[in-house]
Amino acid sequence: MALAGCGTNNSSSNTDSSSGEAEDKESYTIGVTQIVEHPSLDAAYEGFKMALEENGFKEGENISYDVQNAQNDMNNSNTIAQNLVGDEVDLIFANSTPSAQSALNATSDIPILFTSVTDPVGAKLVEDFDKPGENITGTTDTHPEAIPKTIEFIASEFDAKNVGLIYNAGEQNSVAQVDIVKEAMEGTDLKAVEKSVSTSAEVKQAAEALVGKVDVIYIVTDNTVVSALESVISVANDKDIPMFAGEFDSVSRGAFAAYGFDYKDIGYEAGLMAAKILRGEETTTDIPVQYPQNLKLKMNQTAAEEMGIEVKTEWEEMGEYIE
Fold first, then answer.
1. How far is Cα 81 from Cα 107, in angstroms, rounded to an integer?
2. 7: pLDDT strictly greater than 80
3. E strand spans, the chain
4. Distance CA 180, CA 192 (A)
5. What is the pTM of this model?
6. Beta strands of 3-52 (E only): which ranges?
7. Residue 262 — pLDDT band, cuts 50, 70, 90?
8. Which stretch of 22-31, 107-116, 198-207, 308-317 has the lowest confidence by average pLDDT?
9. Maximum CA pair distance of the chain?
10. Which of 1, 13, 25, 77 gets the highest tally of CB atoms within 10 A of its CB?
């Protein structure tokens, strides 16, 4: 992602350090930090900007965005956060768990709105959903029923025993999801087969290592793996292994199915929160962390054919198909 905008501001004199509230002024600068570029996170940022524009914050008029991408490097993420704080931006939009952690480590004064965060409490971003903290709140990208429903669908609709999980054990959000997957498998005949990666370059090798060992592959919303999703899709297609994902963008890219929501929506909700803070109507302490809404099942008809999946007519009543 390129630098999207810059602007002068006096955030240090317009930010209430005790409450995360930005006072009213003529123009604002939003610092945007994103761990890696992939469609889900990009859609969340698009939704964030849309909500602000619809609430009177128009780019080039009264708001500008300093957008920086860490290229999936935590050291870069930390540096970006420190730079945004040094530039005295009015608010930080942290798009992913690592980005939010870096931002919170860098400031206790500037308001932080996060999205695409799986486990805000486990990541030590907030104390709890209803009382998030002094200068941070946002939207999470995990619906409580998404993973259990996915496992239920696999267990009931597929002749499967072993489910392959590829994830970066260094991403707290991914570890939390894998734990939920294994908990959801309790009481079923399914067993998790885990492969951990540390970089996107390792993803294809991990997928190939699962061949012959698993009946299904399930990719949770792991930034490292999703950024190299086509590597997994190619293996799944070649070896006829049904592949499930944690969000819809991965289904559009070639995964078979996901219970999920649109990332643009959770970015939009974070943008609504940001608008209230910038107008001084609420502070981060006033706004609870929000779950995504409208959970549903999407399936990719073309992916089903590529992976040798025999589509059942009753699935049409359970969800919707895309080509």
1. 8
2. no
3. 15-16, 21-22, 28-34, 63-69, 91-95, 112-117, 136-140, 162-167, 191-196, 216-219, 243-245, 257-260, 296-300, 320-322
4. 11
5. 0.72
6. 15-16, 21-22, 28-34
7. confident
8. 22-31
9. 62
10. 77
